[in-house]
Amino acid sequence: MSAPAPKKRVAILISGRGSNMVSLIEAARAPDYPAEIVLVLSNRPDAAGLDRARAAGIPARTIDHKAFSDRARFDAALQAELDEAGIELIVLAGFMRILTDAFVEAWGGRMINIHPSLLPLFKGTHTHERALDAGVRLHGCTVHYVVPELDAGPIVAQAAVPVLPGDDADTLSARVIVQEHRLYPAALALIAGGGAVLEGSRVRFTARARDAGAAILSL
Q1: Number of domains in the chain
Q2: Whether this model's pTM surpasses 0.90
Q3: At which positions is (6R)-10-formyltetrahydrofolate bound (predicted)?
Q4: Across residues 72-97, what is the average pLDDT?
Q5: In the list 40, 82, 174, 211, which could disulfide-bond 60, CB 3.0-4.6 Å?
């Protein structure tokens, strides 16, 4: 019997409470999960997620963006931490900094994000309010690869929720975040385990992933 493939070394980047980070850390505790969360980084020293990561036994550090004169210097400090930890995949989880094109391109195909809308709808911020204003009947979240253009990278997986009569931004957000916490760990497992492969501007699923149902596509 062949030895199992080594787990991918993952860093999670956060700016706030890290609720998606927690769902990823919990999923990665499973012995057969193909990724290992080895580092959490935040650009904000007061990010509540730092303490949550440390409580889970994950090294968590701050690289305060305010200490750097420009984005390139901040990104260089970020890169140094990632290099030291031997990171193979970056997961953005509520990381509220725009990275330089050079950094994004250097991590092309190795950095993912979760966005609270069904992309390509409602790129950017205030997605729940905009979904309600547009009168859509379905809303949700998207896991995608990160590219220099904001919220425009190849889509890995999506989960949809209904927009209900009487919804406001808070109730809709609460329904979406439940799906985010399911979708992100599943999508990371697909990528880290080789079930989802980036080919150009599209994501291809292996036969094994399709045979398993690739259920994350329709949670």
Answers
A1: 2
A2: yes
A3: 71, 96-99, 113
A4: 97
A5: 40
